[in-house]
Design goal:
37% strand; 3 helices; 257 residues; mainly beta
């Protein structure tokens, strides 16, 4: 397994060469960076037919994952997304604009633990003899945060307190289908408003017309009534990573922009 995952222009570095992990029902090969709360695992699926039973794999984070992406490598199929903001009963697909799915075959309605991740019989996660890669994130104070919020449909939009100045924010309207994932970062938009938007589930060019936000010293604030990030009463999940990791008030103050 490789030691990095990249989405567009942002990377997460795991721990170098992978090692075998036998914590779960399936032996996985895992590379982990505990300081960054990130690990990459590869494994081979085991389910073929029979009872709908849970299967576990180890993620080696030492903390409960807040978010995870799964992708079948040996065949076509959606990217399966687990996010704590949805709970263990629902999932999203990273490559589509679909609303969240209530699918017990995905995560077996079971939350991950500090050592194990549980999934059901979904072919996107555990088909017999198919190979998979999984990316796991735990929350690290001052560096990463995964959560949810409700939009208010205003240019004086919802404020999300992260405890740090984000460099990268990914948002998804999970309550309704047809709304793309929204990716904003401080490299393409170095000054507020942050409005150079990409959609990871689309091959569209970069856009600047919708889903604008302000990057603040301790979080982000939505600045537009847009369905992708701030429709009135709509529900959203997000993942965010800091520009300069830090956990003290001084660190937060120096991250202002």
């Amino acid at each position: 397994v490789g030691s990095e995952m990249c989405i567009r222009d942002r990377c997460w570095k795991a721990g170098g060469a992978s090692v075998s992990n036998t914590d779960g029902d399936i032996t996985s090969s895992v590379s982990v960076n505990e300081e960054a709360g990130f690990s990459i695992a590869t494994y081979t699926g085991t389910y073929s037919s029979g009872s709908n039973t849970a299967t576990t794999i180890g993620h080696v984070l030492g903390k409960v994952p807040k978010c995870a992406f799964f992708k079948k490598r040996s065949d076509t199929g959606n990217w399966m997304v687990y996010h704590e903001g949805l709970g263990n009963t629902h999932n999203l697909y990273l490559n589509t604009s679909d609303a969240s799915q209530d699918d017990a075959n995905a995560f077996f309605d079971t939350s991950p633990t500090s050592s194990l991740f549980t999934f059901g019989i979904s072919g996107f996660l555990n088909a017999s003899s198919e190979t998979y890669v999984a990316y796991f994130w735990a929350e690290i104070p001052g560096y990463s945060k995964f959560g949810s919020y409700t939009g208010n449909g205003s240019s004086n939009g919802t404020y999300v307190n992260l405890g740090f100045r984000p460099a990268w924010v990914l948002i998804k309207n999970y309550g309704a289908g047809g709304y793309n994932w929204v990716l904003q970062d401080n490299k393409r938009s170095p000054f507020n408003l942050c409005d150079n938007k990409l959609n990871p589930d689309s091959n569209a060019a970069e856009q600047t017309d919708y889903d604008k936000l302000d990057i603040l010293s301790n979080g982000f604030k939505i600045r537009q009534n847009a369905a992708g990030s701030n429709a009135d009463g709509s529900s959203y999940v997000y993942m965010a990573f800091a520009e300069q990791p830090g956990t003290t008030p001084f660190d937060t103050m120096t991250n202002a922009r």
